[in-house]
Write a structure and sequence with these properties.
It is a single chain. By secondary structure, this protein is an alpha/beta fold. The protein contains ten helices and eleven strands. It has helices at about 10-15, 30-40, 60-70, 100-120, 145-155, 165-175, 175-185, 215-230, 245-250, 255-270; strands spanning about 1-5, 25-30, 45, 50, 75-80, 125, 160, 190-195, 195-200, 205-210, 235-240. The strands form two sheets. It has a nine-stranded parallel sheet with strand order 3-2-1-11-8-7-6-5-4. A two-stranded antiparallel sheet has the order 9-10. Helix 4 runs parallel beside helix 5 (about 145-155). About 40% of the residues are buried.
Length: about 270
């Protein structure tokens, strides 16, 4: 299992100074210059911004995606399973109607099948997103483990577990995070994302923050299951901290990276030794 971290100039500098040791950078798909820069230091792979469930896969530039995949040897095309409230104005956020869930699942499956026509189903992984509840932008059925399992079973795609997304969803909806994660389609896991959760000045939770003890507890619990063989071994575990652009630069602290990348590396190394 490889260790990755979000590419950032701070992470690059730490790698060059041999203060952190990673296998690969995780890069966004919007800048070839950034990919070139990351590649000058370490191999990198692409995390794509595709959303399955919006009916917009026919607008995707597949030539660019295939070119980036080939250039970086990115093994999987990730898609986020989404059900935005604006796409379902007639549906309550907490709907329990089977027909609503069926409609959402059908939309996501349709889009994944379209992706499969371009890259092959065996090369697709589906990522769990965040549901914040009433007044927010994501419907609850799309984070329901049964719905996500149905999507994976219908399509045959893989699964990308984002522990921060699972923690935030559980905290905001009052779920037991371990039970929630355990109910996800982990038997199909191919990639693992780990990062911290913290509240902003208004108390709103956000991810891609420094890891806290609670975040480490969940990370260690998931890795232990990988060690035990309960969960298949993902090809990569990525620390999703730091990055580029206005959304991430302000929360990219070199000292945090210098401390927490080795901590995750040790956690993964412990798994690898068993």
């Amino acid at each position: 299992m490889k260790l990755a971290v979000n590419y950032s100039p701070a992470a690059e500098q730490l790698v060059r100074e041999r203060k952190i040791n990673i296998d690969i950078f995780k890069c966004p798909d919007f800048s070839r210059d950034l990919i070139d820069q990351a590649e000058s230091v370490k191999p990198n792979y692409i995390h794509f911004g595709l959303n399955a469930g919006r009916g917009q896969m026919d607008k995707v530039d597949w030539n660019t995606i295939n070119e980036l995949r080939s250039r970086t040897n990115t093994p999987y095309v990730n898609v986020h399973a989404v059900a935005f409230t604006k796409d379902y104005p007639d549906v309550d956020v907490f709907t329990k109607k089977p027909e609503d869930t069926e409609r959402i699942v059908k939309a996501v499956v349709h889009d994944i099948n379209m992706v499969a026509e371009q890259v092959g189903m065996e090369n697709i992984i589906l990522e769990n997103v965040i549901c914040r509840g009433e007044g927010e932008n994501m419907l609850q059925p799309i984070i329901d483990p049964a719905a996500l399992t149905e999507i994976v079973n219908q399509t045959g795609c893989g699964f990308l577990l984002d522990t921060a997304h699972a923690r935030m969803t559980s905290m905001l909806l009052g779920l037991d995070v371990r039970k929630y994660i355990s109910s996800l389609p982990l038997e199909s896991i191919k990639e693992l994302h780990i990062t911290g959760i913290q509240a902003d000045e208004k108390g709103r939770l956000r991810d891609s923050m420094p890891m806290t003890s609670e975040d480490w507890d969940i990370a260690a619990w998931v890795v232990q299951q990988i060690k035990d063989g309960t969960i298949p071994k993902p090809w990569v575990t990525a620390l999703e901290y730091g990055g580029v652009g206005p959304k991430f630069e302000w929360r990219t602290d070199k000292e945090v990276l210098a401390e927490q990348v080795p901590m995750l590396s040790d956690l993964i190394a412990e798994e690898a030794q068993n």
